[in-house]
Amino acid sequence: MTLELSRRDMLRYSAIGAGALALFGLAGCAPAGSPAPPPTGSTPTDFAFGSWSLSEDAAKPTVQAAMDAFGSSKKVSVSGVTYPYNDYLNQLTLQVRGGQFSGAAQLDVAWLSALAALGKLSDLSSLAQGRGYTSAGLGAGQYDGTQYGLPWTIGAIGLVANQELFDKAGASLTPETIEEFEDGLRALKGIGVIPYAASTKAAQLKDIFVWMQTFGSPIIEDGKTTVGDEASVKAAEWYKKLYDDGLIAPDVDRAAARTLFAQGATALYDDAPVGKSAVLNQSPDSGLGDKMTSMARPVLKKGDTPQHVLWGHLVVVVDGEGAGTAAEFAQWLTSDEKQTVSYFEALGLPPTTDAALASDAVAANTYVSDFTTRVTATAKPSPLWVYPGYAQMETAVAEQVQAVLIGQSSASDAMKAAGSTISGLIR
Amino acid sequence: MTALDARALASASTTPRGIRRRGRVRWGMWITLVIIALFTFAPIYWLLVTSITPDALVFRFPPTLWPSEITLDHYAEVLGNPAIFGYLRNSVIVSVITAILSVVVSMYMGYAFSKYRFAGRKSLMYFVLSSQMFPQALLLVTLYLVFAQFGLLNTYLALIISFTTFTLPLCVWMLKGFFDALPDDLIEAARIDGAGPWRIFHSVILPLAAPGLVAAGLFAFVRGWNDFIFALTLAGPDKQTLPPGLVNTFISEASTSWPALMAASLLVSVPVCVAFIMLQRFLVGGITAGAVKG
Q1: Which helix (H) or strand (E) holds A271?
Q2: Among A206, A314, A415, B137, which residue has the fewest nearby CB atoms (within 10 Å)?
Q3: Would you place residue A152 in the very low, low, confident or very high pLDDT band (cuts 50, 70, 90)?
Q4: Mean pLDDT across chain A, nearest whole number?
Q5: Do A82 and B248 count as a contact with CB atoms less than 8 A apart?
Q6: Is there a contact between B116 and A3 if contact means CB atoms under 8 Å apart?
Q7: Does the global pTM surpass 0.90?
């Protein structure tokens, strides 16, 4: 048998193949234009709605019903595109980048900069006006001065406590300062539970940022990071002290914290309102819902403002076919009073307009009302979210804090190293 | 070993000291095997126990080895979910076609690499293998863009092509080793009998290579069956296979339905286990064929 292909032929065909790949790649990565308002008011067109909630049993019927209701009112088809929450941003980014997706999309508030940086999101400023959105909600949907997202549900990540365990330990549910907070944790340790299921696993160690802010570090100031300053080092040292004293536990992430809380094994953890149903679903205590209460984060010294990080979902619109109708859907979904109140009643997620927040349904929900007053009221977006590489920055800090907790590094060295990594990512 | 050594060894093994030593070795082997078995079966046992434990007791602390309450609700939940059967159908279609395609292509390639000599043969063989070195994320983005250009996204074909791309290199090398182990005299004898290259390969070589083909096919099947990220990205909602489908169904932003996920995982692993049990005698021979030369 003889071979038809020589080495030279092979190289030639390989080069042709590589060239073709590069061309396709470039075609998919072609730069996009500047943001423009979507063409609303024209003939309704079919569009896609990207949403991780469409793959979740609890939320799917409600979201699908909203899509169907809007679709039939406009006589268009709204097709769902869904991925699991943990993979959603990567998949949506790939689809938008590859020109495969246009329409409306659900987005975590933390992801806005990453998606907006692709240059394919519509400017929704005109649709945000006159709809009664709260200023916090509108702020969460802005990136680089442009309203890219309309707020769908806005809350915060705050401290969630088990009132019964606090009462049993004689700990205060309204500690004002960190010292008072620590006293309460020690009292809780005395009744044999993990006092505070704070995040100690890299996946959720981003929670440390809010404690750094509590100690006085702004995280980002004038476009430069302050991680590594005295306040951030003190926060890391304090976290290490809680760890060493058994007031927080090793290997805890959000899922583990919810489980510990559901089992009554911890009295306190950090979560957004969305976590309540997950806790109740896995709890053997049918009365746990009534014992759950939110707690304002303590401050360094009396008079300081409690620090909380914003949490929530936005709806953005990706330019392309059906973008105008998708924008109208985004506006209706997030601000129509009947729709937003029914969404809250079904899922317990705080609405984003003044009218919906003032509704009887929201007012009657003590947990959400209290959470809004005690936690969401002082919540701000993370200063890192404006950078598309924010997740890498959070990971850099998480790894360094972990090194501090297990004694591999001093708080000072670790925070300096983390700050240096963040600076490199900002440039 | 000389006859003298063998005699000395036989004599040593029949002395009381030798018998004690053999007993210790045997006990050591048993203990090692038990530890390995525990290590291997513990996750499967935990999978089973979690799948039959009521939701409220799954995270009970301290955990118990045997659940105090048993429920089959999670199996009913999985079996009552038509979407799971859709994912199962997609997995079967994609994995079976991937396995067949991988075997068909790699048997010709492996045979050519093994029995023919041509310019650049070795370079080409290593080039084929080098595709295994690329990070999957890099390949995923490239494949996504190429498939998007050709309108192949959200099709079975996209998954089959991508899975086959990954399985081919190892299948080719596996089968090349198998063909290496077949003596050239067979080919020569067939040639003398008047058979052409096509006949020699299909009538003489392939029947002898059946265990290797089964091994390569199983490898490709499992690769397609287990893949998560390519199926999630390239398949779209209608053509999604079991791994992304199960994640989509049971893992949400705030919680994971562990018992139902475990029940589903156990059920969908049954076809693969059955295939392995039925074909394992081919698998061992196929994978190790040609591993040792000389």
Answers
A1: strand A268-271
A2: B137
A3: very high
A4: 90
A5: yes
A6: yes
A7: no
Distance (Å, rounded) from C-alpha A221 to C-alpha A240? Answer: 25
Best to test chain B binding among A56, A95, A108, A271 (most B CBs inside 10 Å): A56
Say how far apart CA B1 and CA B4 lie, in whole Å.
Answer: 8
Q: What is the ipTM of this complex?
A: 0.75
List pLDDT tens digits, range A69-83: 999 999 999 999 999
Q: Collect all residues of chain A within an 8 Å Cβ-Cβ radius of residue B244.
A: 84
Q: Which of B81, B84, B96 is nearest to B225 (CA)?
A: B96
Cα(A307)–Cα(A378) distance, rounded to whole angstroms? Answer: 6
Contact B56 A284 (CB under 8 A): yes
Residue A235 to residue A247: CA distance in whole angstroms = 15
| Of residues B57, B120, B144, nearest to A7 (C-beta) | B120
A275–B251 C-beta distance less than 8 A: no
DSSP conformation letters of A26-56? HHHTPPP-------TTSS---EEEE-GGGGS
- How far B126 CA lies from chain A's nearest CA (Å)? 13
> In DSSP terms, which residues pair with A47 in a beta bridge?
A78
A chain contacts of residue B142, beta-carbon cutoff 8 Å: 21, 25
* Residues B271-278, mean pLDDT to the nearest whole number: 84
Q: Render pLDDT for A122-131 as a digit per residue (tens, 0 to 9).
A: 999 999 999 9
pLDDT in tens, A184-221: 999 999 999 999 999 999 888 999 999 999 999 999 99
Which residue of B58, B146, B233 is in closest CB contact with A282? Answer: B58
